[in-house]
Amino acid sequence: MDMARTVLRRLIQFFLSFYPPPAPPPFVAPPVSNEDLEYADLAIIDLSKASTETGRQALAAQVVKAMATHGFFYVINHGYTQDQTTRIFSIANLTFDGVDAEEKKAYMGQSGAVYEGYKPRQTWRIEDGVQDQIEHYNVNRQVRKREHPVALRPYLQEIEAFSHHNHFNVLHPILRLLALGLELPEDTLVDQHTFEAAGETSVRFMKYYPRSEAEEQLTKKVWLKGHTDIGSVTILWSQPVGGLQILSPDGAWRWVRHMDNALVINAGDVLTFLCGGFYPATRHRVVQPPADQVGLPRLGVFYFSMADDDVKLVPHEESPVLKRVGIERLCSDDEAPTMEEWRKNRTIAYGSSQLIPSVREKGVEEEIISGVVVKHYN
Ligand SMILES: O=C(O)CCC(=O)C(=O)O
Ligand SMILES: [Fe+2]
């Protein structure tokens, strides 16, 4: 029965592919900020050079350096044209502006342990009783695993292609560079991040709505508290509304500058686990956009990657690099969580758990997840 349904769906998809859907209502991105801000000076990785072994060795050295300094870098020449990227942002915007409240409710996540479908605004605690003003729509990389709102259905093929693109043309090449940086066989991390296995690597559309002056004051303009990402590598499709800041090793928050059709890449907790602290999860937050962009909504498109659910989060101690520099463990190998445990516990706790001020670090709050200290930064 399932088989018959799949064949029928494939047939329909095949015939529909001759009739491309109408363009989504165009999302016109606002101009970049002209404010004089302190920007982080991030490396630019030209991914078109990853097609040869020599190219990959050179890029791996750049990535190791970028990870040791800011923990963030740009990727350019990733294979999507500006037009393709613009169209994905239009589809992302349609997800929020083209679906009414009732339908959104029907496509909300069913569990606090996994991001799926819509997350309405005001579900995460920020500060002083103020909740977030962020709406998001999370799509598992296997896009057709779930149903989607009517407005998105004409674009599922494009979202599917986008998910594949992120996974195979961006995530995997980056994981190869990270493995090379540890002098591991190239596919060591790729093999732990398959497309087919059970897991929650996802595309996410995200929209931040401007907040009231009272909310801005109570939260000191913080829209999304300082954090590290739950997964391994986060791919952020650069967009012009500022607000993203990274915490540099010198303790200063610096802005991330928009670059047209570039990707902003950062490491999450899972890379810290798997790579024994060699690529530390990077600390970042989102604040109110700069003065000349105040009042604008802020639309984001992401690919949040995680290891396959059954991967045990222990370091690759066979790495010659880790043998030389030493391994930093977040917990003992015996107690290390699986990817599935880690993502579920982190997701349940996010924005709802009671955080405890750190006794060691100023401006840091902590919680314990799967026996590991998770920090939040103010
Ligand atoms: O909106 C952004 O630029 C960053 C969002 C973010 O850090 C996250 O969702 O984990
Ligand atoms: Fe993040």
UniProtKB/TrEMBL annotation:
<dbReference type="Pfam" id="PF03171">
    <property type="entry name" value="2OG-FeII_Oxy"/>
</dbReference>
<dbReference type="InterPro" id="IPR005123">
    <property type="entry name" value="Oxoglu/Fe-dep_dioxygenase_dom"/>
</dbReference>
<keyword id="KW-0479">Metal-binding</keyword>
<dbReference type="InterPro" id="IPR044861">
    <property type="entry name" value="IPNS-like_FE2OG_OXY"/>
</dbReference>
<dbReference type="InterPro" id="IPR027443">
    <property type="entry name" value="IPNS-like_sf"/>
</dbReference>
<dbReference type="Pfam" id="PF14226">
    <property type="entry name" value="DIOX_N"/>
</dbReference>
<dbReference type="GO" id="GO:0046872">
    <property type="term" value="F:metal ion binding"/>
</dbReference>
<feature type="domain" description="Fe2OG dioxygenase">
    <location>
        <begin position="199"/>
        <end position="307"/>
    </location>
</feature>
<protein>
    <recommendedName>
        <fullName>Fe2OG dioxygenase domain-containing protein</fullName>
    </recommendedName>
</protein>
<keyword id="KW-0560">Oxidoreductase</keyword>
<dbReference type="InterPro" id="IPR050231">
    <property type="entry name" value="Iron_ascorbate_oxido_reductase"/>
</dbReference>
<dbReference type="GO" id="GO:0016491">
    <property type="term" value="F:oxidoreductase activity"/>
</dbReference>
<comment type="similarity">
    <text>Belongs to the iron/ascorbate-dependent oxidoreductase family.</text>
</comment>
<keyword id="KW-0408">Iron</keyword>
<dbReference type="InterPro" id="IPR026992">
    <property type="entry name" value="DIOX_N"/>
</dbReference>
